[in-house]
Each structure stands twice: as C-alpha cells, then as structure tokens.
From TrEMBL:
Entry annotated with the keyword Membrane: yes
One Pfam family of this chain: DUF1206
Domain DUF1206: from-to ranges: 30-96, 113-182, 208-277
InterPro entries the UniProt entry points to: DUF1206
Keyword entries, A-Z: Membrane, Transmembrane, Transmembrane helix
Membrane-traversing stretches: 31-51, 71-89, 110-131, 160-182, 202-225, 254-274
Listed name of the protein: Membrane protein
Keyword Transmembrane helix carried by entry: yes
Length: 279
C-alpha cells in the first residue's frame, strides 16, 4: 500500500475518532474538570475577600485543595485526564472543524488550535502535580508570570513581545466578557438548555461567569503591558495577584467578592456545558 493510501486511511480513521462517542465523552468530562477548577478558584478568591488570604486563588491553590480531600490524589489524576480529553477534542476541531455551520472556517479552527495548546498545558500541569512534580502544577502563578516575563524580556525585542502578548490577553479578556454579555454561547447549546428555569440558570451563570472571567484576563493582560512599558518583570502578575488587585480598588473587597462569585458561576456554567454543549 502506498504512502498516499496510508495517509488517506489514517486521516479517515482520525476523522472517525473525532466523531466518536468516546471523543464526545472526553469533551464533556473536560468541561466538568474545567468547572471544578473555576469553582474552587472562585471559592478561594471569596475567602480572600472575606479576610482569609492563606491559600492562593489560582490553579495551584485549587489543586492543593483537591489534594487535601479524601482520595485527592485520584481526583487529581481524573482532572488531568479529563482536561487532556478536552485538549484532544479541541485538536480534533482544529483538524476537522467544529460543530455548527461555520465550524470549518479557518478562524474557528485557529481558535480551536489555540485552545488545544492551552488545555494541553493545563492538563500537563495537573498531571505533573498528581505525579508529584509539584512545581509544575501547584507553583505560584504570580512567580511563574514574573519568571516567564523576565525570560521573555531577555530575548531580542523582548519588551515588545511581552507588551504585545499582554495586549492580546487583555483583548481576549474583553472579547470573552463581550461574548458572554451578548449570550453568544446560546448557539453552542442544545435547545433544552435554553428553556424555562434551566435557561434562566444557564444565562445567569453564563453571563456572570463569562464577564468575571473576561475581567480577570483583561486585568491580567494589563499588568503584562505595564510590565513591558516600565521594563519591570515583577509588575507582571498571575491569577492570584490579579484577583487580589480587585480588592485594592475603591470598591475594596466587595469587588473581589463579586469577581469571586462570578468565577464560581463560570464553574457551574461549565457543568451546564458538559451536559448540553453541542459536540
């Protein structure tokens, strides 16, 4: 059998796998895992707003919370594997197109590729933490951001790279918040999720959660831009410091509490996506 025939058969097999029930299950469990992480980050951020700032409100803090529970080690492995399933699903979308009439457009497939990279990294960090490499999954997001920013600034044109990267993150945050406010997620949901009390609950968690998540990304990107402009890597912040910065505004801890509730709502919205998302 020739190389062309083997390639064609391999592509056909991959496409069949992307349309399989196993891939659908992987995507849905990935949404569940994402929901768990955001729910925990929201709870940790709310604790900070209420005066208990001991645990960091980021992925590392969430993983530490999971690890402290009975059977926590097994739960960590389950989260990491589920997120790997999410990454594979996004990769299949990048290769063969997503659900929906416009799922095959190059822009959609490029977004799916970016999401694959993101979830692959998150899955790797969670699995590394589960395997005992705590520095990979549970390290402070603030320290990691400063370290990455400092290394990037050492590269030729590094200041511009950091600034452009921060601007891209900030714009992404605004895009996420805007799409949530406009309820753009409706087109990805099955009809039963949009009716009656279920629809109201989905909209409350989807809008509030998306706006809160977008706000965090927008501010996170803003700090990166400031670090680039001032040429000060330590001004770049991770999720934890970004969340704490909301408490430094005139609104004080109340704004942080509002953002925390929004992030927890996004976790609940992710559970709804696991149930009713078109895969």
């Amino acid at each position: 059998m020739g190389t062309w025939a083997l390639t064609r058969r391999g592509r056909r097999t991959a496409r069949q796998a992307s349309d399989s029930s196993a891939m659908e299950a992987a995507a849905r469990w990935g949404f569940v895992a994402r929901g768990v992480l955001y729910l925990l980050i929201g709870v940790l951020a709310l604790r900070i707003a209420l005066g208990d700032g001991g645990q960091e409100a980021d992925r590392g803090g969430a993983l530490a919370e999971v690890a402290a529970q009975p059977l926590g080690q097994y739960l960590l492995w389950a989260l990491g594997i589920a997120l790997a399933g999410m990454a594979l699903w996004r990769l299949s979308e990048a290769c063969f197109g997503a659900a929906g009439a416009d799922g095959h457009k190059p822009r959609k497939r490029l977004f799916s590729l970016a999401r694959f990279v993101f979830y692959a990294f998150v899955s790797y960090s969670v699995l590394s933490f589960a395997a005992g490499a705590s520095g990979s999954g549970s390290g402070s997001s603030d320290d990691q951001s400063e370290d990455v920013t400092a290394r990037a600034m050492e590269l030729p044109g590094g200041q511009w790279l950091v600034g452009i990267g921060g601007l891209a993150i900030a714009v992404t945050g605004l895009w996420i918040a805007g799409r949530a406010a406009l309820r753009k997620y409706h087109k990805h949901l099955k009809a039963p999720a949009l009716r009656g009390r279920t629809g109201k609950a989905v909209d409350i968690t989807g809008v509030a959660g998306g706006i809160a998540r977008g706000a965090v990304f927008a501010v996170l990107g803003g700090f990166a831009v400031k670090a680039a402009v001032d040429y000060q890597p330590d001004e770049a912040k991770g999720i934890d410091d970004t969340l704490r910065s909301f408490a430094d505004t005139p609104a004080g801890p109340w704004l942080l509490a509002l953002i925390a509730v929004g992030l927890a709502a996004f976790g609940l919205f992710s559970f709804a996506m696991a149930r009713w998302r078109k895969i």
